[in-house]
Specification:
With about 280 residues, this protein is an alpha/beta fold. It is built from eight helices and 16 strands. A six-stranded mixed β-sheet has the order 5-4-3-2-1-14. A six-stranded mixed β-sheet has the order 6-7-8-9-12-13, with helices on one face. Strand 3 and strand 4 form a beta hairpin. The chain is globular and about 60 Å long. The mean pLDDT is about 95.
């Protein structure tokens, strides 16, 4: 399938102007047979804490994208903000070529360093969907720093999307973590970032597609543009050739985590200056 990543210079908190930007790109790109067109996190506002301006009760952005998808015969992935009362939710939604919602993910980890947790509530589920017989999942930006959810998603998904508004000052983290998530999960990672200056923050772009072997197959640096790529699902071939996942010990990991949590309630990982061994094999009750 042909995917396109739109590395946008998002016009700050201006949905209508960004809808126009998107449509201009769709008119050009979709004539080339694109199957899936992907945008960054909070695609039409930028990463804003001003939820009084960005949040929606009427699904305005969803309806707009459903219209674009049907009109330009392309599936679209996009970010938007849902009004949930006292707090909002950071969503990434995918609609298919018919305008039907096939995925609606809520960011699990609000970025507390920037105060996102004060205005947004975290999601509680992992989403998956299928297009062109390829299984996808997606997370959003800061979720990239939490490998556990990627391991769960990769039990079904062969491709994981990571839309983001990731700042230039942490671009090395972005590149390193994306490759790590691809390698350790043996999946394709498709990362879609924004670019340029927004509200005093510089975004370097660095949108890319990474193979299950950790290779950057294609990417954009610090300019606005659309990256197109012909995606082939050969994930199972990677996993058969180098069968890392078969050696995972999920039950042991869960047991060790439970033992650690129980021990930390009383000793916080240390006791009388000596290291505590959390072993599920020779546990002393």
């Amino acid at each position: 399938m042909k995917v396109a990543l739109y590395q946008m210079h998002i016009i700050w908190e201006n949905k209508d102007a960004n809808y126009v930007q998107l449509e201009e790109k769709l008119k050009v790109v979709c004539s080339r047979g694109i199957d899936l067109f992907l945008l960054p996190e909070m695609s039409f506002t930028g990463f804003s804490m001003n939820t009084d301006v960005t949040k929606e009760k009427d699904d305005r952005t969803i309806k707009k994208m459903q219209d674009f998808a049907s009109r330009y015969d392309v599936a679209i992935g996009f970010g938007w903000v849902k009004d949930c009362g006292n707090k909002s939710e950071n969503h990434y939604t995918v609609v298919n070529k018919n305008g039907k919602i096939i995925s609606d993910y809520v960011k699990i980890h609000p970025f507390s360093y920037a105060g996102e947790n004060e205005r947004f509530q975290g999601g509680h589920s992992i989403d998956s969907f299928q297009l062109s017989n390829i299984n996808f999942s997606n997370f959003i930006c800061y979720d990239l720093r939490f490998p556990e959810i990627f391991q769960i998603a990769s039990k079904i998904a062969n491709v994981i999307l990571v839309p983001a508004n990731w700042p230039a000052r942490r671009r090395e983290h972005w590149t390193c973590l994306l490759r790590a998530r691809a390698l350790e999960n043996q999946v394709y990672i498709i990362a879609i970032n924004c670019v340029g200056e927004m509200n005093g923050v510089i975004y370097s772009g660095d949108s890319c597609i990474i193979s299950p072997n950790g290779e950057v197959l294609s990417g954009l640096l610090d300019q606005e543009g659309v990256l197109e790529y012909e995606l082939m699902d050969d994930v199972q071939e990677f996993r058969i050739e180098f069968p890392v996942k078969q050696d995972r010990r999920e039950e042991l990991y869960e047991e060790l985590n439970n033992l650690l949590a129980a021990s930390c309630e009383s000793i916080e990982g240390m006791h009388n200056g000596q290291f505590v061994n959390y072993s599920g094999k020779d546990r002393v009750e």
